[in-house]
User: What shape does this take?
Amino acid sequence: MAFESFQLSRVDVGEATLRVRHGGSGPPLLLLHGYPETHMMWGKIADDLAKDFTVVAPDLRGYGESSKPAANDGHESYSKRAMARDAVALMEHFGFARFDLAGHDRGGRVGYRLALDYPQAVRKLSILDIIPTAEVWKRADKRFALAYWHWSFLAQPAPFPETLIGHDPDTFFGSMLRGGKGPFAADAYADYRKAIADPAVIHAMCEDYRAGASYDIAADEADRGKTKIAAPVQVLWGARGALAAWYDLLEVWREWAHDVQGHAIDSGHFIPEERPAETLAALRGFFLG
Assistant: This one.
């Protein structure tokens, strides 16, 4: 069982209530999941990480069993800045003003925004399989439009994508989760399916992507060339994924952080689930080094 030694709780962080698992001992490590998943994506490595760290793994606002704040006109309520506020408040709840952070996919976007907005809070940051949001849209081309079509679709005004997805959420999200035939543990995949059957989660995911196409770009552009991530940054990416073919990830991230290292892992996009041993070794080496 994943998270066998962890406690499950719901924590009020002010603007949202987050479902969170925490466990272990040692320096604090916050794990943030990606789309369209929940904190259960860390299940294959969380117990091993808890041997060295106090691990905190929440569902992001809107995802899984965390609460779904009301959307607003500017989509700020589902921006990565808003999710970063949740994360800082969550770690303060557990008594941690400064911590390490690993984020995959959307969680990586929350992670780098948190490191920019709260430089005093992040000791080290590991970012899994993304480049900054503003860079994604700036470099978007035919390859991106075909492979990452959901970015534009989910960002369409409500209720268009919600209505279409709601007719058959299993088919829509199953196309991204490989119909459950990918590397997902049974308990994790069951958690994902339960979440995506909830219309409120579907709406929140769309709001996340609407924020990504508007508020988040503006936040990134306000920092471009002016503010860089102060904490050491590790970048991991899937050698068999689209990003490896499209970008020099280390070169991109060096425009956004002072100290960048990292490497590819022989996987697709879902790195911690496809290659848990390699991910565990990379995270332990970086955070404990």
Notes: The longest strand covers residues 17-24.
